[in-house]
């Protein structure tokens, strides 16, 4: 089991306080390195959330329900 606690992260660029990473790389002015880092953090977080949602929905029962097969909860291979 993997436990990931909730992390609060609040940061902004001192030179560009109105920059929002959701606006993408096109909103970064003059190649600001701190804005670039904020954008990278935002994209990494979005990717992590996407992977967590895929993993959560990909349980054996859910996968079998998608396939239309019934899952036998007993481990008959052990007998």
Count all strands and give the number: 0
Distance between the termini: 28 Å
User: Please, what is the average pLDDT?
Assistant: 79
Helix fraction, binned, reads 40-55%
Would you tell me the structural class of the helices and strands?
mainly alpha
Q: In what range is the share of β-strand residues?
A: under 5%
H/I helix tally: 2
Principal-axes geometry comes out as elongated
What's the order of the H and E elements? HH
**Unreliable segments of 5+ consecutive residues:** none
Which value, in Å, is the CA radius of gyration? 21 Å
Largest pleated sheet: none
Overall description:
The chain is an all-alpha fold and 79 residues long. It has two helices and no strands. It has helices at residues 33-57, 60-67.
Question: What is the element layout, followed by pairings?
Answer:
Elements: H1 33-57, H2 60-67
Q: Can I get a quick summary?
A:
The chain has helices at residues 33-57, 60-67.
């Amino acid at each position: 089991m993997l436990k990931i606690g909730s992390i609060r992260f609040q940061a902004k660029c001192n030179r560009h306080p109105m920059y929002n990473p959701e606006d993408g790389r096109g909103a970064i002015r003059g190649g600001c390195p701190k804005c670039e880092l904020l954008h990278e953090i935002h994209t990494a977080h979005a990717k992590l959330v996407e992977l967590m949602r895929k993993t959560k929905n990909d349980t054996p029962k859910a996968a079998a329900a998608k396939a239309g097969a019934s899952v036998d909860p007993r481990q008959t291979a052990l007998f």
